[in-house]
Automatic annotation (TrEMBL):
SUPFAM superfamilies: Acyl-CoA N-acyltransferases (Nat)
Annotated protein name in UniProt: Acetoin dehydrogenase
Biological processes, Gene Ontology terms: acetoin catabolic process
Gene3D superfamilies on file: 3.40.630.30
Domain annotation N-acetyltransferase: ranges: 20-189
InterPro entries on file: AcuA, Acyl_CoA_acyltransferase, GNAT_dom
Listed Pfam families: Acetyltransf_1
A GO term, aspect molecular function: acyltransferase activity, transferring groups other than amino-acyl groups
Organism: Ureibacillus massiliensis 4400831 = CIP 108448 = CCUG 49529
Length: 210
């Protein structure tokens, strides 16, 4: 499958001034930017930048960023599922994963995350993909947000549903290890039955055989 990457860029006014939301950014573009010190949900900012540059180098990798001038204040990543997770056990060519979304605290609550997702799905080629995302409560900023685990889950569902993601049941042990964890997926308009059947088989691996 050919992974076509058309570039999009929009400006957004926020309480902290004008920001640019753009992508998919190239590794070269990303290398020129500085990552805000508040981008620490997954790893320290410099290491996170290095990881995103590596994702941008992948054929299927798509990185969208929110930046104030040359300072990155948020990002979202898309790539094939992690080889260590069950979602990669069947190499479904048109199934990619929203691997991470992160916005620094001072830009939360003003629609930056939602706009970042919207821009990442402007491209009509995204209708060829089944996009999954796995939500684990241990990645959530419960302390910084002041939300409890259920409020945060509701907020994430609202955010993801704004671009067409829906919750899907699964028996994946990591997801079922806590009731707030969830699997969500966005099924593009041109995704065929074969892809959906293969996705269903990945979702439920422990069905009883009669």
């Amino acid at each position: 499958m050919e992974h076509i990457k058309n570039f999009y860029s929009v400006e957004m006014e926020t309480q902290n001034g004008l920001i640019v939301i753009e992508g998919p950014v190239t590794p070269e573009q990303l290398s020129k930017y500085t990552f805000h010190e508040g981008l620490t949900s997954f790893r320290p900012p410099e290491q996170q930048k290095k990881a995103l540059v590596e994702i941008a180098e992948l054929e299927e990798g798509r990185i969208f960023i929110s930046r104030k001038e040359s300072l990155v204040v948020g990002y979202v990543t898309y790539l094939y599922p992690d080889p260590l997770e069950r979602w990669s056990e069947d190499k479904i060519e048109n199934m990619i994963e929203l691997g991470a979304i992160e916005i620094i605290p001072s830009y939360r609550g003003c629609g930056v995350g939602k706009r970042l997702l919207e821009v990442s799905f402007i491209d009509d080629h995204m209708e060829d993909y089944l996009v999954i995302t796995t939500e684990y409560y241990w990645h959530w900023d419960l302390k910084g947000s002041g939300l409890n685990v259920w409020e945060y889950r509701k907020m994430m569902e609202r955010l993801m549903s704004s671009v067409g993601f829906e919750p899907y049941a699964t028996d994946d042990p990591e997801i079922t290890s806590h009731p707030a964890n969830c699997l969500m997926a966005r099924i593009g308009k041109r995704v065929n039955e074969d892809t959906l059947e293969r996705f269903d088989r990945l979702r439920f691996k422990n069905r009883f055989m009669y």
